[in-house]
Here is the input.
Amino acid sequence: MKKYSKKEIKIIQDFINTNIDNDIKVKTDIEYSCDMYEEIIYLGPKSFVCESFDNWFNQKFENGEKYNKRLIAILHEIGHIMTLNEETQDDREFRYALLLLQVDNISIDELNYQYYEITAELDATTWGYEFYKNNYELCQELVKELNL
Ligand SMILES: [Zn+2]
Here is the structure.
């Protein structure tokens, strides 16, 4: 997975502040995550994007193959902020904990698929997909600029 330079983080920050929300901040960390309450997204070398995510996404969303999954991963974290509601956030943590209890009984792919379908996760991904779809040219320029 990609490690972002300071210059790239600045490009992403400007993109978000210009096109999405002026208050969201971008920082680096080990993995992708977000602090919904402080409105910060963290980007790093580790992300949930993998073969099972690609397969799931391409089946779930119309023309899924047209969408760069690394940009989807960034938009997904923003999506958590944009779709925040306390009910789904609590539900997400509860369901994730339940999923982890079954880890011995199901395959990694199956675990991943169930994780992507948790309401808060699906809401965040769907938000990212919709934004990308509605701003396709703009998003593809960012993909090129960042060499995603
Ligand atoms: Zn997520």
Observations:
- The chain has a mean pLDDT of 91.
